[in-house]
From TrEMBL:
SUPFAM superfamilies: SMAD/FHA domain. Residues 52-101 form the FHA domain. This is FHA domain-containing protein.
Length: 130
């Protein structure tokens, strides 16, 4: 039996690519796959399900052991036709393009900062991949 959540990690040309996908929670055909890119550490996170929890807890879809990152830090969610980041009452929160929010839309070209990490935001249309 396959695990409910799937996390794939692959090193490609010294970049680490982490894919979060759950076949039981596919993105709608009109959705965008969310890419979070950490150029300083050469890591790319590809989110292929409509809701992803992020934090240090083992129950998170994307578990990151970053300093000052909460156990359940935030949720990334495809809703109303775009990606949103929602704070889950973390102590340090997150910043989009340098401004702190409790909830914010994420657009290609934005930056998402949590802890001491800044991630570049990009998206790929699901329809382009099928």
């Amino acid at each position: 039996m396959l695990p409910k959540k799937r996390t794939f990690t692959e090193d490609i040309d010294t970049w680490q690519v982490v894919i979060i996908s759950d076949p039981k929670q596919p993105l709608p055909r009109d959705a965008q796959i969310l890419r979070l890119i950490d150029p300083a550490r050469r890591v790319e996170y590809i989110l292929g399900q409509p809701q992803v929890t992020l934090g240090q807890s083992p129950c998170c879809d994307l578990r990151l052991e970053w300093e000052r990152l909460g156990e359940l830090h935030c949720r990334l969610e495809w809703k109303q036709g775009c990606w949103w980041v929602i704070d889950l009452e973390s102590a340090d929160g997150f910043f989009v393009n340098g401004t702190r929010y409790r909830e914010s839309e994420l657009l290609p070209g934005d930056t998402l900062t949590m802890s001491d990490r800044t991630l570049d935001v990009d998206q790929i249309a699901v329809a382009e991949l099928v």
